[in-house]
Amino acid sequence: MSQVLAGLMDEVRDDPGVAGLVLTGSHARGVATAGSDVDAYVITGGAARWRPSSSSPRLDLAVLSVEELADVSDRWRRYSYRGARVLLDRLDGRIAELVRRQGSLSAEEAEVMAREQLGGYVQFVRRAVKSRRDGRAEVARLEEMEAAAWCLGALFAVFGRVRPYHRYLRWELDHHPLPDPWTADFVISRVSERPSMLFGPLEAVARARGFGDVFDRSGSGQA
């Protein structure tokens, strides 16, 4: 355990106003390097805002109330809870449950997100195909770049999962694998080079899971 984290744990353990402590980031996922910051959430039991007694440039700390921890509307933040470690939970497991909820999608959320992300991916791939066909290679490349985020969002939502941050994409696929062929090497090599290469495999799995109408609305195939 890093000295920074040990000091933070000692401080929150002695403060009854703190309901929980959650370690996230590279230290929680076991991929920290010598230069990695300690990323953590301090969860307060009331409206009062908590502050550490001392600061450190190696500590990236966010303070949330229990109500804020329960709010799942911030899509971007949700992956930070995937693989997070609850180091203190004074609410008899509620902190751990809220962390689990943040890092996963309900069936309803997955349905909405999959359709949204698939729709965006399909449109950007079709634009790339049309631009390439028209001899506008630089425009096609830009459309492919836009398609990458939609592709990853769609892939994980189709499988009911929160999309990982880029830096943890390989970690996610290595530690929590998707079914074949969606290995880390398969996904990363294609989405980083030309996301449209994943159109066929993604369409197949999306149709198998009930999202074929997203593709049907735009016609069959990439062009």
Structure, briefly:
Residues 9-47 form the Polymerase nucleotidyl transferase domain. The protein has helices spanning 3-13, 25-29, 66-70, 75-78, 94-102, 107-133, 137-158, 169-175, 184-191, 199-208, 212-216; strands at 18-24, 38-44, 59-65, 85-89.
Task: Kindly describe this structure.
This protein is α+β, with helices and mostly antiparallel strands. The chain folds into 2 domains: 3-102, Beta Polymerase, domain 2; 107-216, no CATH class. Helices cover 51% and strands 12% of the residues. It contains 11 helices and 4 strands, in the order αβαββααβααααααα. The chain has helices at 3-13, 25-29, 66-70, 75-78, 94-102, 107-133, 137-158, 169-175, 184-191, 199-208, 212-216; strands at residues 18-24, 38-44, 59-65, 85-89. It has a 4-stranded mixed β-sheet, sandwiched between helices. The mean pLDDT is 93. This is Nucleotidyltransferase domain-containing protein. Residues 9-47 form the Polymerase nucleotidyl transferase domain. InterPro entries: NT_sf (IPR043519), Polymerase_NTP_transf_dom (IPR002934).
